[in-house]
User: Fold this.
Amino acid sequence: MFEYAKIILPKVSFSKQLFRKELLKCISWVEKGEVENLRNWCFENFGEIYPDILEEVFSGIAA
Assistant:
């Protein structure tokens, strides 16, 4: 599902609300071991656009 997230998130990154919604879905779908990879990938690709969303969503998740 990590690969799916890499396809979906760029497509919805035009909308802050949609990006947050899809990111939460992706986090719930990826395996526990992939959460850290997803986090790193998101910060690399969207860290400048949505740092607040990324911090909020990933702050409560234990990888």
Notes: The chain has one domain: 2-59. Residues 20 and 59 are 14 Å apart (CA to CA). The chain has a mean pLDDT of 94. The two ends are 15 Å apart (CA to CA).
